[in-house]
Design brief:
The structure holds two protein chains of two kinds. Chain A is an all-alpha fold. Chain A has helices at residues 2-12, 15-40, 46-63, 70-86, 95-119, 127-136, 146-165, 167-175, 177-182, 187-209, 214-228, 232-257, 261-289. The longest helix of chain B is centred in the middle third of the chain and has 16 residues, at 166-181. Classes of the chains: A mainly alpha, B alpha/beta.
Chain lengths: 290, 281
């Protein structure tokens, strides 16, 4: 045990480990806050869809030899998020189909672009490694620069402030959009805001767990919390706490056991969900007997 | 000017006309019941009044300083709400949101309002319970309490009795009537013609493509459209029999024609056939 702590202390002397921890916790918190709304709006898969869009945009940025791809990736992802969330109810192509279309479409195009440019050797020679990193975020969280860390802190702070300030409005729009609009609230505006915030989180989170695993960060904490708690506020708070705990644990385990960061965090999330599901069962049985 | 005026409105969606030539007015304190078959445009009309949809042509005007923020709405339940983790208190308070404006949190007054609404509808004891675990009748009360928080002048209800047992249905209608006597204008969609004629002050009857009738409850009961609807199948026969019996044949004939056609005619026929009362016999 003491060895383990010594090892951790040793690791935490490296700044990149501290950065990874800060960024990981912030991303986990933000994604879990919005996860509750997304799961309830039947948009669990938006994380997946948008992250694939971000993957496609990353490929384009790489092909264009951009040094800081976030300025291209973020706007493209935000626009996609707005299109997906706004056309939710009335579109000819329904939400899930549109999401699947955009999701696989951009994944394919992204990989295609990466491949074409790898052949013309502008790209690094290790193509499959690059793709794997982008999809599973295997090491990029450990190679964060100071700028990226501050950008992440700034964007996370923005997301949290927006969430707190618009908390009641987000609740009303999620619970009953028609009622909110009919009684004179700007539901469309809040949906737009939600779309922008979700896009920001996904672009930032790609660094941590990679494009394929973001959905896990969004849905697992929310679903865990919903097993046990019955009010929106309790679910949101619990979801945040669960997510931060799982992310911190995941990062620690991945450092000690030298496993991939993203998939370790998700594995911890799955364990958390199992525990909450069991707890939920026990609580509801007790509720029936008493 | 009336609180709400509908002027020659045509409603429809995806290029298909559902109702055309619809005109009616609602005054403060009225209790308007919208009846009609499935697909006659009742819900479309309500969504248009709420500005969730735009009419194909014509306009809906609000008067007496009525603004959107003073409207309460009891929608039909959506699929999302069936597994939504929300406490009763959270749902009811969300009705106060239109009073907040840019303020992020509810103030003391709004919180008290939510508590009052819950007291009024008898759901205060379950304020901390989870909305999705309540019975259908209680859920409907929660949504009505939320609508009350939003409603300052007018309350729109879309089939409030859906999924309620007979006892809860009567309680729901009694509650709505009580709110009406306290001064809130009510516009309600209902399949239940008996309840509509019992509680409402005005009836709007929508038929395929055209509005069949608009007027007070008394006029409706005596109109041909009302008799066909209220008589539930034997209305036409009863009307004919009465016509033969008391010799008001001309009046009844006009009534039958107008009943199939325009609202104004139906109204006139209602006055004309006032004597026979065949439906109730």
């Amino acid at each position: 045990m003491i060895e383990l702590i010594d090892k951790l202390v040793m690791y935490f002397q490296f700044p990149f480990v501290r950065y990874a921890m800060i960024v990981g916790i912030l991303i986990a918190l933000c994604s879990s806050l919005l996860g509750v709304t997304l799961v309830l709006k039947r948009f669990s898969f938006i994380g997946d869809g948008l992250s694939h869009v971000a993957f496609g945009a990353t490929a384009i940025a790489a092909a264009m030899n951009l040094t800081n791809n976030i300025f291209l990736v973020l706007p493209i992802t935000i626009v996609s998020a707005i299109l997906l969330l706004r056309s939710g109810q009335n579109a000819k192509i329904k939400g899930d189909a549109a999401l699947a279309m955009i999701s696989v479409g951009s994944l394919a195009v992204g990989y295609l672009i990466m491949n074409i440019y790898a052949k013309t050797s502008k790209f690094s020679s290790n193509l499959s490694g690059d793709v794997c990193t982008t999809l599973f975020g295997s090491t990029s969280i450990l190679t964060l620069t100071m700028t990226e860390v501050w950008l992440c802190i700034g964007l996370s702070a923005l997301v949290i402030v927006v969430f707190v300030v618009f908390y009641h409005k987000i609740f009303a729009v999620t619970f009953d959009e028609d009622f909110a609009t009919a009684t004179g609230n700007k539901a469309k505006l809040y949906n737009l805001l939600l779309a922008v915030v979700i896009a920001i989180i996904i672009v930032v989170a790609m660094n941590l767990v990679g494009a394929l695993l973001i959905s896990a960060l969004v849905i697992f904490p929310a679903l865990s919390a919903m097993r046990v708690f019955k009010s929106f506020r309790a679910v949101t708070l619990c979801s945040g706490i669960v997510s931060v705990t799982c992310a911190a644990l995941g990062i620690l385990i991945s450092i000690i056991a030298s496993t991939p960061v993203g998939s370790t965090i998700v594995a911890v999330d799955i364990t958390g969900f199992t525990l909450f599901a069991i707890a939920g069962q026990i609580i509801s049985r007790r509720g029936l007997t008493s | 000017m009336s609180q709400l005026a509908c002027q020659n409105v045509t409603l429809g969606y995806e290029g298909k006309t559902v109702v055309s030539g619809l005109s009616f007015t609602v005054n403060t304190g009225d209790y308007l019941c919208i009846v009609g078959e499935n697909g006659s445009g009742k819900s479309t009309l309500m969504k248009t009044i709420l500005k969730l949809k735009t009419p194909v042509s014509g306009q809906i005007l609000t008067g007496e300083g009525l603004i959107t923020r003073e409207i309460g709405y009891l929608p039909q339940q959506t699929a999302v709400q069936k597994d939504f983790p929300a406490s009763v208190r959270e749902v009811v308070r969300s009705g106060c949101l239109n009073r907040c404006g840019l303020r992020p949190f509810y103030n003391r007054q709004e919180k008290n309002m939510a508590e009052d609404a819950m007291d009024k509808l008898g759901i205060a004891p379950v304020a901390k319970s989870c909305y999705r675990e309540l019975s259908g009748g209680q859920q409907q009360r929660v949504l009505l309490a939320r609508a009350l928080c939003a409603a300052r002048k007018i309350l729109l209800l879309d089939e409030p009795a859906t999924g309620l047992d007979p006892k809860a249905t009567v309680e729901m209608y009694t509650l709505v009537k009580k709110l009406n006597t306290e001064g809130i204008t009510i516009i309600m969609i209902s399949h239940d013609i008996t309840a509509a004629t019992k509680y409402a002050s005005h009836i709007l009857h929508l038929g395929a493509q055209t509005p069949l009738f608009f007027g007070t409850k008394e006029e409706f009961l005596e109109s041909e459209a009302g008799r066909v609807f209220a008589g539930a199948g034997n209305g036409a026969g009863a009307g004919n029999g009465a016509g033969a019996g008391n010799g008001a044949g001309a009046g009844n004939g006009a009534g039958a024609e107008a009943g199939a056609g325009d609202g104004a005619g139906a109204e006139g026929a209602g006055a004309g056939g006032a004597g026979d009362g065949g439906v109730r016999a």
